[in-house]
Design a protein that fits this description.
heterodimer; A: about 190 residues; mainly alpha; about 0% strand; B: about 100 residues
């Protein structure tokens, strides 16, 4: 049986990869917690503009937030398809998740470019520094997630992503959903409460 | 045969649940943006938005990350650092006077 060779159970009876990945996500909570704290601590302390009120584009970011939320839906549908051995739909949903992630990155690239055009860079003021580090770190996580998802699509096309590999997709899904929940917090704290 | 039981520690929700959660997440996001643009909510904007954001966070973690029925170790490894991160954030905001105290 395939799973006998691929499962990695610990003495707790739990899959050790999944256990390790939840620990990794816990450490990521601390990373993003520190970045969000830094943003909040320095909020409103810039001695020169542009300020968040002057520059943040709420309608645009609302759309990109919706795109990321829908990518999470595509991700769970991909996991469901892989679990039931539906290769066609697992490829469709994995690719859809990756494309929605690329779409989110496109919105972020457009936002960053427009901010730079309006005079806000990493070195302009405290808002620029904390904003770009926080959202840039999140964007880097999304980029890594997109690469990860595309590797899963390739594995699926090679016929190496059957139900026995569902845990691989579940772990990629945990990462993707974590990136989503971090954005849920960033959207509220940085964009709506600024 | 499906190897799902060997890899997963509990049964995942069905597609219907995933679609329902996506619908709820969409509605909450629309309400968030709507509330943001209504001047009448200005005084209570922060608590409303934080509550709505918290609801979205919990929905994704419970249903999409499958933590709702998952093993307590997974919950522990996620919840403990999350609580520490939130506590550190609140402590720093007090320390730097963001809640009305004097900035250090």
């Amino acid at each position: 049986m395939m799973h006998a060779a691929t499962a990695h159970h610990s003495s707790t009876g739990l899959d050790s990869r999944k256990l390790a990945f939840w620990m990794f996500i816990g450490s990521e909570c601390l990373l993003f917690g520190s970045l969000i704290s830094t943003y909040l601590v320095y909020q409103g302390r810039s001695v020169q503009g542009p300020t968040p009120e002057e520059i943040l584009n709420i309608p645009l970011t609302s759309v990109s937030t919706f795109v990321l939320l829908m990518s999470s839906l595509a991700m769970v549908l991909a996991l469901a398809a892989v679990t039931r051995g539906d290769r066609t739909w697992s490829r469709v949903w994995l690719l859809a998740t990756a494309l929605l992630g690329v779409g989110f990155l496109g919105f972020q690239a457009y936002e960053f470019a427009s901010f730079v055009h309006e005079g806000l860079t990493l070195r302009t003021n405290l808002f620029g520094s904390t904003f770009f580090v926080l959202t840039g770190t999140h964007g880097a996580h999304v980029f890594i997630g997109v690469v990860w998802l595309l590797t899963l699509v390739v594995r699926s096309l090679q016929g190496k992503l059957g139900p026995d590999k569902a845990m691989n997709v579940e772990i990629a899904g945990l990462y993707w959903h974590f990136v989503d929940v971090v954005w849920i917090v960033i959207f509220t704290v940085v964009y709506l409460l600024s | 045969m499906s190897d799902q039981p060997a890899h997963s520690d509990h049964k995942h929700p069905g597609v219907g649940t995933y679609l329902t959660v996506a619908g709820v997440l969409t509605v909450i996001t629309l309400v968030e943006v709507g509330v943001f643009y209504v001047p009448a909510f200005e005084r209570v904007l922060a608590p409303i938005l934080l509550t709505l954001s918290g609801a979205k966070f919990v929905l994704v973690v419970m249903f999409y990350m499958h933590l709702k029925g998952d093993h307590r170790f997974f919950k522990l490894f996620f919840t403990l650092p999350l609580v520490i991160a939130v506590a550190v954030t609140i402590a720093l905001l007090f320390l730097f006077g963001t809640f009305g105290g004097s900035p250090s």
